[in-house]
Design goal:
Elements (H helix, E strand, L loop, with lengths): L3 E12 L2 E13 L4 E5 L6 H9 L6 E9 L2 E2 L5 H10 L1 E4 L13 H13 L3 H14 L5 H5 L8 H13 L5 E5 L7 H18 L2 E6 L11 E6 L2 E7 H6 L4 H9 L38 H5 L5 E4 L2 E3 L15
Parallel strand pairs: 3-8, 3-9, 6-7, 7-8
Antiparallel strand pairs: 1-2, 1-4, 4-5, 9-10, 10-12, 11-12
Helix pairs in contact: 3-4, 4-6
The structure holds adenosine-5'-diphosphate (ADP) and magnesium ion.
Length: 327
Amino acid sequence: MSLLEVTDLCVGFHMPGRDVQVVDKVSFTLEEGQTLAIVGESGSGKTQTAFSIVGLLADNGYSWGSVKFEGKELIGLRESELNKVRAEKIAMIFQDPMTSLNPYIRVIDQLAEVLVQHKGVSRQQAEAESIRMLDAVKLPDGKNIARRFPHECSGGMRQRIMIAMALLCRPKLLIADEPTTALDVTVQAQMLELFKSLTDEFGTALIMITHDLGVVAGLADKMMVMYAGRAVEKGTVDELFYDPRHPYTLGLLTSTPHVEERSRRLNPITGSPPNIENLPRGCTFHPRCAFRFERCFAEIPAIREFEPGRSKACHCEGKLVFEENVA
Ligand SMILES: Nc1ncnc2c1ncn2[C@@H]1O[C@H](COP(=O)(O)OP(=O)(O)O)[C@@H](O)[C@H]1O
Ligand SMILES: [Mg+2]
């Protein structure tokens, strides 16, 4: 049994006069301590996939399919039970730390409160543990920072405080949604380093959501690429980086500086992602695809395993070779 087994997960939204499906049959598994990167352009359904796993979809949203966490089905679970799982086992952190932090409450009070509430420890124990966690996320002076209000901390510090808060109850699974996007490059690198060391130290499984492939290398074990609400390629990070089999994955790599030498010779993907309410016929990626052929205009490629542990939703067979574009 995997820690997390997501099978044919779908997300829809009630909209005035219509319903819109934004996630279509996404499946993946995650083992204890493993890191999965979910990658794709803005609007591809990454956040809604994460929200549906933790039951945090907007009021007009609904999900179907299956999300099994430690063997227990989370979809359709009562709110009270879901709250329990969220509090004790799954933590989520967001791009903007102020989504999780209250600007008017001292850092130590926010952190300690989490532990008192969910772990039933004494206030004194909770404070000591909170300061330990602030040190664990490598804040220069945990004791001092604990006494500040969030607005008295820098963006990088707040991010670390939020990670400390997420890890306080020692979750089995941490879902981080673009946690470094708002940070400058140096701080971003430090945060990724921190994620790596913390998941190693605490054995936490991590789902890292990002539109930036630069974030994935060195951090994740597995990777899932999403396009227009679907998973289009899945495999290990090494497999997808060094031998991408979906033209979209190749395009993303090509658009990421310094990921791969040979990328520089290839054209990055042009155009923009489709409107989810008006998807192209056939493969939704075909209008932007350099490898398309007749079948792609007419037939939606199902995701299929083409090698053990590797799958893609593409009609192309074998390795992707640019014939015309290679200089
Ligand atoms: N409450 C909502 N009602 C209707 N559509 C929504 C709602 N929230 C998100 N969406 C749509 O869901 C799609 C996927 O969004 P999202 O998962 O946030 O993408 P991303 O990959 O950038 O995280 C987008 O087209 C977005 O507009
Ligand atoms: Mg998002």
